[in-house]
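Q: Protein A?
A:
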Amino acid sequence: MNEKELISLKNRFDIVGNDPALNRALEIAVAVAPTDLTVLVSGESGVGKENIPNIIHQFSLRRTGKYFAVNCGAIPEGTIDSELFGHEKGSFTGAIEMRRGYFEEADGGTLFLDEIGELPLASQAKLLRVLQSGEFIRVGSSKVLKTDVRVIAATNVNLMYAVQKGKFREDLYYRLSAVPIMMPALRERKDDIHLLFRKFASDFSSRNTRANIRLTDDAVALLCSYRWPGNIRQLKNVAEVVSALESVKMTPGTERVVISAATLSRYIPKDEPNTLPVLSRKQDEGSSLNNEEKEMLVKAIFQLKQDVDHLKQAVFGNNVPARPAERLPQWEEDVLEPDEQVFESHGAEEGAGESLPLSLHDVNDDLIRKALEKYGNRKAAAKALGISERTLYRKIKNMEDRR
């Protein structure tokens, strides 16, 4: 696609920006449009993923057919099958008549499934069948129906991670991602931020007969330095609010209103510490051991280590056999804060003789028991300890075997 064709495409679908990653996404969409390949559009919420399936449909051989956009995350789990595949009269409470689903309605056209990662596992199996054979069954029916639909999916989550966690079918993932298209986040399109702001502000001013606004250089710098977690959707909201509150009614003598960085800063959200992405493992409030309990456990480890050292000294004298230093298991390191992690003990006093690391089975058992007592169930205890339920079950069994 040459530059002239790319500009024409952007004008047709009201797309603003010159970012290379954006241009590449648009070029791929046009290239695969004439085929029937399934496409998976990935990107954060608010980056404009909905433009891609619309472009693909308009440039495909199905452009005269119907086009439906379905937000899988907005449909309750109990009704998603009915929405997608339809239902028979009386198949459930409230089904007062037969209803055709989106796959039936879109026959010969294109179906855009947004937030595909929110689709329940049971519905994923049915979707896979439609993609493979074009066959589906209405809810409450046993009759197999056929459809010819081009499916385009979009997600704002990492589907491969969801596959690893068992929340998304691996076979469906590979079926959907025949052609992957990644839409870049707004913070990755620095040069496009001001262009988009001017477009949104100008459109708002035209619709509401307001004077156009212009940003000073320092205001443009402030605009581009913000991280825009809500992406284009958030930028549009800010541009329209600034236009509404800082501009004036259009009059014959009015040209434009100049906005400085000081004025614009009132409309740019502040990066509060509790809203920034965290680097450490997320724990819900109240789901981890408190500081007092952590301190008690650390002290118990040192005390138990000293007691064992004294016993070994009494038994072996000065001929204590040497063993390599031993680390806490990773799951225990995760429970303790970094400054509380214990890898080996060097005695209660500085300069004490060389001592041996302690086997931590007893401490492990005590930690597990305390977590179970505190939270009352294994699921919550496992979460607090930073391990899976399966690992916790195995450790509990090992505790019972050692009794």
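Q: Protein B?
A:
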Amino acid sequence: MDLAFIAVEKIAEMFLIILVGVMAFRWKIIDSNANKKLSGILLKIVTPAMIFMAYQIDYQPERLKGLIITFFISLASFVWVILLAKALIRPGKGGDMAIERFSAIYSNAGFMGIPLVNGILGTEGVFYLTAYITAFNLIVWSHGLSLMCGIMDGKGVLKNFFQPATIAIGLGVVCFLFRVRLPDMVVNPIKMMGDMNTALAMLIAGCNLAESNLLGAMKKGRTYGVCFMKLILIPLASVLLLSWIPVERIYRLTVLVAISCPTAAMGTMFALQYNKDSNYASELFTVSTLLSLLTIPFAVLLGGWLL
């Protein structure tokens, strides 16, 4: 039960930052144009800094083994979730198919998953979560970006793949494997930028929420359909699948917590950058985050019993 209380506490903390974003927009401290620029800073500077810093730790063979195992479990989870979303989320009059599929597939594992895993599993869990975040970034900057941009050919996907986040992954892995530890004068500024990740993402989401009609979103059947798939169907199926994989419990529980997170805040950032319906993306993010106050503790408890 302690795991459930920790999950609720962390989600509530993030909601408080979202409310600050709402007030900042209402009080005209941040406008729509500034919010779009902030999303660019988040995607191209802050998130890559956070990812790179995750690999600035001492090398240990057991850590490398766990990282590789968690990475391949994470990749496998994305494959079947993408196929499920494609099968269940069809074009319709009530919503944007690309945003809905993106919201069902991609979890808020970087912004919300890190503090959640840290509270539930400690620093060791956070290290293995970087494997899920690595898989997330490899997929989101290829499949996810193509989904939002409408670029589906191989050449376009390859071009989209070379983004700040994926470059940070490559540099981070190289530094970890070859035991390259940067001096404090370099590491400290990068760490300070990466530490802004969760707060900045929640502020941006709050600004978008202030522009959207939350009450209207709560009345949309398609919103609940996407949230049901993201928060209940996918985590339940994931628990059953993960229970059959004969690896350490911490690897599987880390992946489960990441999968169980609400829809990715990055969906709103991508929608802003590529002229999709960012209000709808923000509505899905906010409603799923609100509902996750109930679903994440349940998923964590279930995972604790079965994994």
